[in-house]
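Page 42, continued from yesterday. The earlier attempt failed because a stray header line got pasted into the input along with the sequence. Redoing it now with the clean sequence only.
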Amino acid sequence: MKVLFVCTWNIHRSRFAEEVFNYLAKKSNSRHRAFSAGFKVGGYKFRTIYFPALDNLKKLNIVPLRSNDFSKHIDDIDLSEYNRIICMDEVEHKPMVSANSSLQNSLFEYWNIIDEPKMKSEISLPRCYQKVENLLRDID
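This time it went through. Structure tokens are written below.
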């Protein structure tokens, strides 16, 4: 199974989820893999994984596989390759999905992983970790 995690800039929540998913999948010898993308890539000064995500990954002893890769825009991804597409926050991302006509034929799931500054990374990323862990448990 291939999972796509999506957030606004593809530097924080979705990248964290991707790295955690791939780490846990590899650790359990699972064939499942994840990637990530964003809705507004390039609209923010960072284009690689954001330092709060890196800090949280480090605390979990997860070495990111794509720490130097630039963020990807969802329009540059072939969504048909993915079995599940998960947006990090329904309130934030559902309007972005609705506004993008190229996304209308894809099925999106929504989590409630809220971005900074509304919620600090120390709260949101551990919640994201738990959601990713539960997702892997459910699909295995």
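Notes: Helices lie at 13-27, 51-59, 90-99, 121-139.
Reminder to self: strip header lines before submitting.
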